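User: I would dearly like some help making sense of a protein record. This is the protein in question:
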Amino acid sequence: MTVHTLSHLDALESEAVHIFREVAGEFERPVILFSGGKDSIVMLHLALKAFAPAAIPFSLLHVDTGHNFPEVLEYRDRTVAEHGLRLHVASVQDYIDRGVLRERPDGTRNPLQTVPLTEKIQSERFDAVFGGGRRDEEKARAKERVFSLRDEFSQWDPRRQRPELWQLYNGRHAPGEHVRVFPLSNWTELDVWQYIAREGIELPEIYFAHHREVFMRGGMWLTAGEWGGPRENEAVEKRQVRYRTVGDMSCTGAVDSDAVTLDQVIAEIAASRLTERGATRADDKLSEAAMEDRKREGYF
């Protein structure tokens, strides 16, 4: 008798495909959060695989801070056009212009994403929202369920989460509630990159080493942009860097790197002792529980 076993990447892919199909069968108006970052790119790739050769039965949603990397926005728009997808955009700038939100003194807009996100979910009546969060990223995400129930205010209460035994997912929710779904929960950063290499998935070029003018703030290399730039005591340097994660330019740091190929990036990550968010995201350092506080309010 021949025994067939799946590689760890095949097992992760199979689990994610199952989750996408489960949501398609259980929910009426699912949407995929898609920023053009590597995790959302892998998530979209898996969704396309799950329903091929048919079109995916989901639209996409991007919460636009207005402080995005141009390379990532170009990739986002090109991908949407290539696959004929519908993209919803919730703009933080619109909320600032209307006086609903105020700019922060530090210039970062990542903490301002919650209100545009939750109001877009409510106005479009999305009942399932796919996110690219992984449990290895941050301690608050480590205790997130694959199917994460959110109340009528989009808030997360860890005590209301349901057991998920034997890959059985409970999507029941009351009117006005919705479920955040995380198909990459059991993936690591290294898994994501190995899968990208195996599948030949294209990424924005800023994920690979390149020369860029940066300045040091809070222990991270930041790039100047419309959000602001270096202060008087912050010198601009031209360095060879890459980005491990992509978010708002004002709080996403680059890392020194000479990794210009997928194999080199994979080797670099395998040797790293810092998580991608711990090394490069200032918004997670606002407090010890910064991520959990935002998740309770309705954040990703």
